[in-house]
Amino acid sequence: MSSRRSEALAFSLVTGINHAMARLVGIWDSIGIMEEQRVERMETVKKHIEGLLNDMIIEEEALKHRIRANIITFQKQLDTLCLEMSMDPNKMEEGLTVLQIEKNLRLRVEVLTKEKGERLKELHGLQQEDKELCVELCVTPYYIPTGSMPSRTQLQELREHIQTLSEEKKSRAKVFSGLREDIRKLMEEMGHEPETSLEKESVGHDEDIFLLTHENIKALKLLLSQMEVKKESLTNTLAELKEQSMCLWNRLDALEQDCNVFQESVQGTLSDQITQWQGEVDRLTDLQKTRLEDVIEKVRQELVTFWDKCNLGPEQREPFNAHFCDNNFTEELLALHDAALLKVKNYYDQVKPLLEALQRWEKYWALFQDFEKKAYDPNRFSNRGGALLKEAKEKVKVQKMLPKLEEELKKGVEAWEKDQGSAFLVQGRRVMTYISSQWEEYKQQRDKEKSERAALQTSKKGEMTTPFKTPTKRAHGGINGPTPNKIRKTPSQLTRVRSSSTFIRVPSSKPPLSQVQMQKMRPLESSSSQRTPLLECNSTERKQPVDISYADFTSALSKKTSDAVFNSTAKDPTF
């Protein structure tokens, strides 16, 4: 379409020139200009037209060369910008005219130049912000070579770096403010005045006095830990003073009302409270010196209480007996008693878990003995309502718990002895020796009771057996009276058991002993003769306790269960 328009314009241009020349010729004809003059005039018109056209051609040629030069220049600039901005090289479309190429390159260069300026401006702002954050946090800034053009990736990484630093700054600022607040509160609670420059800066109200560095955070944490240690020390000192005051109040029989009034009057910081309590301790100490005898006697009572709690035997108490029996009541004697009391209290705190474990064992040991005593009570079979079943369950529970508690106690004692390097004694004996002696004593007591029951049973049997003379017939054929034909007794009224020349008389209201029961009584009599006599159990040569486990004891106990049940039923007069 455009080519046709240009051809039409060219044709109209030629037509216009022809019309103009025709008019000039007509004018020349009307004027009467001669041919020679006409030629000259036409030559002039031709030169003028050719000159105009040549000027136009020259201008367009210059434009063409300028456009080509621009294309080269813009292409170089575009390549440089792409290289600086880390972009891919520009690719031109095919089939474009020179003018279109020049225009596209020019617009692309303008866009990249504008983007370059924006990047440099953003880089400057980001670097300034990054520098400030890095100074506050004492970290290394994000590195971008000076004078270089940052890429889009670098700018994005710089933004993320600044965002991370900003969050770190907020986090550290929160930690700093928290640490300073905690330090300030601790100092106020203790009544501590800042001494070092760090302490003064910590309690100050200037938030920007500290750089938010890890070193400063560590320094504040260290200061906080020191303040906490100091507070703990002051708290322990205050607790010790309170304990001393309580002890002195108890020793001096102070009125509870006066003690409460003093405790309510104590106020202020820890340092102030310590000063007030120290004054009270000093006052009570001076008062104590005037009542040494009463005070020492109370300390002795408390000392005996803790000795009993710790299960200390006579050998362990023996070293202090000389001071315990000393009646020369002096401050030195009170100091010795206080030292001994403090020592046994510390020992009690160390072995308290072991003592609690021993108390649990003794509790179940008492239950076990109680159940074993009930096993010989025939009246328990008359109970109703599931009491026997409940008792059996409880007994099984106790039998399971005893060895478990013994094992736990043994392991605990071994660990404690290994850690402390000393033996744990119960009434002067090792704990397992103590437990074994309890089992041994219980076994001897059972054998003693069994021997006593056998002896009692033998004596009852002798009382029930009475001798009779062999009946002889008189002249009338009677037996000390009427003849058997006149006096008859039924078998239910009189039962005779032949044993050599004696009779056993059984009341008529009771059934006779059967042959099976008589056979059961014979092994009982024979076994009773094989048991340990009562004299042996009470002999002066007492056997040393040997280690015996719960399993060994129960296995030996199960072998004698049937004998124990028969002995308990044999005591019932109904048999």
Automatic annotation (TrEMBL):
Residues 442-547 are annotated as: Disordered. Pfam families: MAP65_ASE1. Residues 490-503 have a biased composition (Polar residues). InterPro entries: MAP65_Ase1_PRC1 (IPR007145). This is Protein regulator of cytokinesis 1-like isoform X3. The keyword Disulfide bond does not apply. PANTHER family: PROTEIN REGULATOR OF CYTOKINESIS 1, PROTEIN REGULATOR OF CYTOKINESIS 1 PRC1-RELATED. Keywords: Coiled coil. It comes from the Eukaryota. Residues 442-453 have a biased composition (Basic and acidic residues). GO terms for molecular function: microtubule binding. GO terms for cellular component: cytoplasm; mitotic spindle midzone. Residues 217-244 form a coiled coil. One of its GO terms (biological process) is mitotic spindle midzone assembly. Gene3D superfamilies: 1.20.58.1520.
